[in-house]
Amino acid sequence: MNPPAFSSNAAAVTLSHFTWQSGFPAIGFAWQTWRSRGEYAEAEAIRLSTSVMSAACLQIGRSAVDHQAKDDNAVSKMRNNMALGWFYSPKQILHYFPSRFTSLKPPRQPLKNPWTIVKQLDSHQWNLFLVGLAGWSWDAFDFFTVSMTTTEIAKEFGEEPSAVTWGITITLMLRSVGALISGSICDRYGRKWIMIGNLVCFIVLELASGFTQNLSQLLGVRALYGIAMGGLLGPAAATALEDLPYDARGILSGLFQQGYAIGYLLAAVFYRAFVPTTPQGWRSLFWFGAGPPVLIIIWRALLPETNHFQVAKAEREERERQKREAAGSHTGAKKTDMFAFLKESNQAMRQNWFLFAYMVVLMTGFNSCSHGSQDLYPTFLKNQAGMSPTQVTVITVIGQIGALIGSTLMGYLSTFTGRRLAMMVSCVFGGAIVPAYMLPRGDKLIASVFFEQWFVGAVWGPIPVHLIELSPPVLRSFVLGVTYQLGNLASSASSTIEATIGERYPIAPAPNGDERYDYGKVIGIFLGAVWAYILFFTFLGPEMTQEERNEEAAATQEFENLRAQGVSLQEIGANRARMEGKSEKLELADEVEQLEDMEKATMKRAEGG
């Protein structure tokens, strides 16, 4: 490292140099704040001699290095141009925003055959992926039981459809509570049993929904269901994706995300099978929904914890054991392991708070897109377009098939084009098709729905792996689940807003005298705004760089090689902790040596001046 040129403001140059170039964002922020105090900073720089200031600089640098070594073990730093705290100063902001254009350039990655990619998976990885997908799909099925039966529930309870859609809204509002609780437990104790616990809640609450006697009871049960639903996504996504080979994460992320579409598709199919054909009507659909989670529970109970979690747990325990030995502490291992988890979690949140907020803003748009295009659409088809239950089922199924294909394809392509570019292209095409989604009538809607839902699915395809790539590993399930569900909370009123505003635009009554409303106009305007919102914030946001992807792929391959050699997961984790400790000591030595060289160069210039 070449030392900075010394001048009358040597302190500022030197401190700014080692702070930002050596990667100490916290010190840099403190120094920029101190420096901005104007006259006081300048007076201090003049008053202090060069040698004293250099010595102070060295001491601060050593303290910073020591602090970094003590507090930053195994905590993921901000990625994607965020490592230097781009939001702290105008200079960093000016560096970040122009890079949003250049960062869209696709990485130079060969396009691999998807069949070759998925053949890399072994039985352990396939089982965990499929059970996670099954849990997420049935999560979506249970959610869409209300949106598919809104008209029937409103008629039986003597309410407007807009009142029944509160059953959708209240579920969405409370999903973030479930994600907060479940994510915290999941990252500390594992993905397996918290996923099973949420599935047990599904069984109880779906049965209870079918026995409600008025709208107030239904809303109360759906509120509790929202907590259970919100708690499932984080464990299910982590279970499905974190043990996958790196190249397979894109395509299977798209397929996993479309567990939501699969759930919607199944809800549409079984709506047609049960609601018009059974004496219990809509209630039979809820009762049926309580059955399949039993099979998913048995399946998950027979499978082990994810390899990633077991290695991370062993790594954390070994790191704390080394600290106890160094300090001569006799504190119990369980107590120190909990302390280490809380400490690392706290530090991860402090370092990633801005990224966390961005992810919530982004997920607000994505959830508004899916709920705005899907939740009230069956009501639009039945009430405004005058379609029969069979026609509604056919169109819904075709739309979700489009979403399933689009999501899987774009998830696959995002590995080679980059996540953000893939999602932005989907936004442009999805927005262009909105008029065709609302204006035609009859069978012409089939093609429109297929392609609009294709791009709704496509924009969602890279999201699970994109969120995982942005999340700190120590809080992977928590951050993924909570940001997704807080976005759901912010978008929870989408269907209620559409229904309420739509009822302000009555149209000619149906032949049987039922009131009809122009829901299509409201859905179209809402979707156009949401597509523009997603495009803007996706462009603005960060993304894992190709260098980071290569490092991730290399680490994953190394892990698989060790596992193939018969090395236990616990030993892999312990070895990582030991290697990390050695690496930190070398980094400390390099930093101190660099600071000493800077001190000597600065003092030499001062003596020569």
Automatic annotation (TrEMBL):
<dbReference type="GO" id="GO:0015355">
    <property type="term" value="F:secondary active monocarboxylate transmembrane transporter activity"/>
</dbReference>
<feature type="transmembrane region" description="Helical">
    <location>
        <begin position="253"/>
        <end position="273"/>
    </location>
</feature>
<feature type="domain" description="Major facilitator superfamily (MFS) profile">
    <location>
        <begin position="128"/>
        <end position="545"/>
    </location>
</feature>
<feature type="transmembrane region" description="Helical">
    <location>
        <begin position="193"/>
        <end position="211"/>
    </location>
</feature>
<feature type="transmembrane region" description="Helical">
    <location>
        <begin position="163"/>
        <end position="181"/>
    </location>
</feature>
<feature type="transmembrane region" description="Helical">
    <location>
        <begin position="522"/>
        <end position="540"/>
    </location>
</feature>
<dbReference type="InterPro" id="IPR020846">
    <property type="entry name" value="MFS_dom"/>
</dbReference>
<feature type="transmembrane region" description="Helical">
    <location>
        <begin position="285"/>
        <end position="303"/>
    </location>
</feature>
<dbReference type="Pfam" id="PF00083">
    <property type="entry name" value="Sugar_tr"/>
</dbReference>
<feature type="transmembrane region" description="Helical">
    <location>
        <begin position="421"/>
        <end position="439"/>
    </location>
</feature>
<dbReference type="GO" id="GO:0005886">
    <property type="term" value="C:plasma membrane"/>
</dbReference>
<feature type="transmembrane region" description="Helical">
    <location>
        <begin position="393"/>
        <end position="414"/>
    </location>
</feature>
<dbReference type="InterPro" id="IPR036259">
    <property type="entry name" value="MFS_trans_sf"/>
</dbReference>
<feature type="transmembrane region" description="Helical">
    <location>
        <begin position="223"/>
        <end position="241"/>
    </location>
</feature>
<keyword id="KW-0472">Membrane</keyword>
<keyword id="KW-0812">Transmembrane</keyword>
<feature type="compositionally biased region" description="Basic and acidic residues">
    <location>
        <begin position="578"/>
        <end position="588"/>
    </location>
</feature>
<dbReference type="GO" id="GO:0035879">
    <property type="term" value="P:plasma membrane lactate transport"/>
</dbReference>
<dbReference type="InterPro" id="IPR005828">
    <property type="entry name" value="MFS_sugar_transport-like"/>
</dbReference>
<protein>
    <recommendedName>
        <fullName>Major facilitator superfamily (MFS) profile domain-containing protein</fullName>
    </recommendedName>
</protein>
<keyword id="KW-1133">Transmembrane helix</keyword>
<feature type="transmembrane region" description="Helical">
    <location>
        <begin position="353"/>
        <end position="373"/>
    </location>
</feature>
<feature type="compositionally biased region" description="Basic and acidic residues">
    <location>
        <begin position="597"/>
        <end position="609"/>
    </location>
</feature>
<feature type="region of interest" description="Disordered">
    <location>
        <begin position="578"/>
        <end position="609"/>
    </location>
</feature>
